[in-house]
Amino acid sequence: MTGMDGSIPPTPTKYQLEEMEPGNKDQAPIDRRAITPVNGMAPRDLDEVLVSRFGKVEYIGKGEFSQVYKVAELTKSATKPQQVFFSTPTHRTPPSPSSKFFAVKKLSLPFQGDKDRAVRLREVSVLKSLQGCDHILQLVDSWENKNNLYIQTEYCEEGSLDVFLSLVGVKGRLDDFRIWKVALEISQGLQHIHDAGFIHLDLKPANILISFEGTLKIGDFGLATSLPAQKGPDLEGDREYLAPEALRSEIGRPADIFSLGLILLEIAANVKLPENGATWTALREDDFSEVPTLTQDATAVLRDATGMPVEENAERNANIFGGESAAAKNVRRNYNLRGVNRHSNDIFGLGRKNDLREPPDFMEDPNHSSSLDTVVRWMLAAEPIRRPTVHELLQLKCLSWTATRQRAGATVYEGNWGPADEVVEPDSVDTEMTDV
Fold first, then answer.
1. Residue 422: in which H helix or E strand, if any?
2. Annotated catalytic sites, by residue?
3. For the chain, does the N or the C end have fewer beta carbons within 10 angstroms?
């Protein structure tokens, strides 16, 4: 990725969840098994080990097998502030230069013997082997205390991809360029995982975190394992994103490709994936008869200057796959999407001069070899051997084109089809100006 422009407009993500509209303060938080701040915890309930180890400790959420805390490690001297741009409108204050924040995951249950300890430490071992990739959550430290395992990682300020998609999806479909940026960044992280000899086995939006700059990072390696994988029920992730061969305990790299394909289908069709039923089975048998076209007219959705759909899409295509409950939708709508900046003379962002004016062919032709329809169906092939490798994905025109034009993190809006040519190749524009 090349240099990032601080003028890029913000995009809403999970920090809008922290302030509800008046009258909703007692509403229960969404249960999303994500490493994102959700609610506070009384000081007496904070983990004593963390309180004694760090300058500040804040409970931020829990998953099925762990609790997660945000901790601050005070430094002796102020560090030089980094140049950043905002991928979201937030009411928070940027981190103080005199402190650095981390996330600490504490496993819910203590070790149940040596065998259980070895299984749980597998996550630490995998993270140690995956250092140095921008799209992998980076391990900072790990330790044990009274048979409890603590895993300290970098802290991703903008939460998880599932919350981001919830906030945008209830309003309308994500724009094409961000869909392809999501595909690109997850694929780049997955390439690092597969090249290191591991498979993740639990790829889903809740396990993909968003940095302060809007960059995606694959996290939660609790089910990750080295190849060749050992058969066992503990290597099955969430059913919504589960590859069909996982039910036969046939685990390999194609299982991660299938999960990524379902993530892209979920985003591009703006749907809620089924946990079971006829449609769940059909998606694993090469039957896409219920899947809407993934190549859509980007101009059909009005967006403000930040890329947020202006009109709420009440359908959200949720009914196609069995939908989500009305209660869940109402919870989303009660959150206040505030802080979105609009130019007074450009309320819909239609006058963005730095955006590409026409889409590339693969974004408008569903039959193109690099269209979302073609690529996602390839990734969702029922037989693992028929799916692409992550290297083959990254060589496709859709992802190689996106990689050359991306100027900001995956969640940052850069226009429906990406930045204009003069933004991507400023040198050519400067040369023309000089000649004049």
1. helix 421-424
2. 202
3. C
pLDDT above 60 (res 32): no
For the stretch 220-231, pLDDT in tens is 999 999 988 776
Residue 434 in domain: no
What domain range includes position 339? Answer: 161-427
> Both ends of the chain: CA-CA distance in Å?
31
Q: Who's near 431: CB < 8 A, 6+ residues apart? A: none
pLDDT classification of 65: cutoffs 50, 70, 90 = confident
With respect to residue 4, please indicate whether it lies within any of the assigned structural domains: no
| Selection from 33, 23, 61, 89 nearest residue 335 by Cα | 23
Give dist(CA 179, CA 408) in Å, integer: 13
In this structure, are 134 and 218 located in the same domain? no
* Residues in Cβ contact with 85 at an 8 Å cutoff, skipping those fewer than 6 apart: 4, 5, 6, 7, 8, 213, 408, 412
Sheet holding 148-154, edge to edge: 56-62, 66-74, 99-107, 148-154, 139-145
Residue 9 CB partners (closer than 8 Å, separation 6+): 305, 306, 307, 341, 349, 412, 413
Residues 136 and 92 in one domain: yes
**154, 178, 206 - which closes a domain:** 154
State which of 103, 119, 154 marks the end of a domain: 154
> Cis link prior to 228 (omega < 30° from 0)?
yes
**pLDDT averaged over the chain?**
78
Establish if 5 belongs to a structural domain. no
Q: Is the pLDDT of residue 383 over 80?
A: yes
Q: Please count the structural domains in the chain.
A: 2
- 199, burial (CB in 10 Å: exposed 0-12, middle 13-18, buried 19+): buried
Span 207-258, pLDDT tens digits: 999 999 999 999 999 999 998 877 665 667 789 999 999 988 888 999 999 9
